[in-house]
Design brief:
- With 339 residues, the protein is of the alpha+beta class.
- Among the domains are: 109 residues, Band 7 domain (Tetrahydropterin Synthase, Chain A, 2-Layer Sandwich), CATH 3.30.479.30; 60 residues.
- Helices cover 49% and strands 17% of the residues.
- The protein contains nine helices and ten strands.
Length: 339
């Protein structure tokens, strides 16, 4: 039993004839065909029947003239056309302008819609996605295998995934991409636009599962704090995935990042508690520094001599004043600490 293998196609540049030259040729062919028909029917007056040879040439010239007309096509800047002749890839035209090519260059996937719809012509169940993809392919077929080489933007929807710690989060990204190899885009994947959408979602889900949302370990990359690093990793994975379809990634960045609604309130309370703790740490650190400075100043300037008990009382009072959230109202002690 032989294993089936997939052939990787590579784009081949080719050139076709100038459309303006063949436009003159087709016009002269039309004029010549009209002349032959007139000359053939003019023989009725002289011989009682039309001239067979000019008539045959004139009749054969009509389909030839019509076929030649189908060979004209135009390309805009950053647009290419893939040339297929009876299923054989002949190359890709990238030069913009008015061209003429072999009229028998086929439309490739124009009949894909009918194949995906089923025997009765109506999509059923799982065939619906195939019909949508085939409709896109059919539109490209009707445009005679034209492929846009311009940069395109894929603004992905919000995805609900689990981060590295298993927390459900919502994430979305925007991807800017363009077709680089037209042969791969046309022949190596069934629908390169649908392929880009599907692989973008899959890559984003995978990247989101590799990093924690926030509060990572020391020097750990997180989704919220290291957006540039995460976007760079996403672009690298997309580049690897898109290479099979001949698509190049220009840019990939996160556009939305948040906790899922079911845990958003709990995570908000956690963040608020962490912020309060961090603020308290700074307040206590500053209060201890100020108390230490006050005691040193009193001792160096010999303002008052404090024993351990009085020193402890002063430290307690100063810490209360400096760390209290509300305004402190001191009580003046007219006695002593020992009475």
């Amino acid at each position: 039993m032989k294993s089936s293998t997939t052939t990787v196609n590579r784009e081949q540049f080719t050139q076709v004839q100038s459309g303006w030259f063949f436009l003159v040729f087709v016009f002269l062919l039309f004029v010549g065909d009209i002349y032959l028909l007139i000359h053939a029917f003019a023989g009725i007056e002289r011989f009682g029947q039309p001239l067979l040879f000019p008539l045959a040439l004139g009749v054969l010239g009509i389909p030839a003239w019509i076929i030649c007309l189908t060979g004209f096509f135009t390309l805009q800047p950053n647009e290419a056309r893939v040339l297929l002749l009876f299923g054989d890839y002949k190359g890709t035209v990238r030069e913009s302008g008015f061209h003429w090519g072999n009229p028998f260059y086929s439309n490739g996937k124009a009949g894909a819609v009918a194949a995906a719809a089923g025997a009765d012509g109506h999509p059923k169940g799982a065939n619906l996605q195939a019909v949508i993809a085939a409709a896109r392919a059919g539109r490209r077929g009707l445009s005679r295998n034209k492929i846009s080489l311009r940069a395109r933007t894929l603004n992905g929807g919000q995805l609900k995934v689990n981060d590295k710690r298993g927390n459900p989060i919502e994430i979305a990204a925007v991807v800017i991409w363009r077709v680089q190899d037209t042969a791969q885009a046309m022949f190596d994947v069934d629908d390169y636009e649908n392929y880009v959408e599907t692989q973008s979602e899959s890559a984003l889900r995978h990247i989101a599962s590799l990093y924690a949302y926030d509060q990572g370990e020391e020097d750990e990359i997180t989704l919220r704090s290291h957006v540039d690093e995460v976007s760079l990793a996403l672009r690298g994975e997309l580049h690897e995935r898109f290479a099979k379809a001949g698509v190049q990634v220009e840019e990939a960045r996160l556009t939305h990042l948040a906790y899922a609604p079911e845990i958003a309130q709990a995570m908000l309370r956690r963040q608020q508690a962490e912020a309060v703790i961090a603020a308290r740490q700074k307040i206590v650190h500053g209060a201890v520094s100020m108390v230490d400075m006050a005691l040193k100043e009193l001792a160096e300037k010999k303002v008052v001599a404090l024993d351990d008990e009085r020193r402890a009382a002063m430290v307690s009072n100063l810490m209360v004043v400096l760390c209290s959230e509300s305004e402190v109202h001191p009580i003046v002690n007219t006695g002593t600490l020992y009475t």
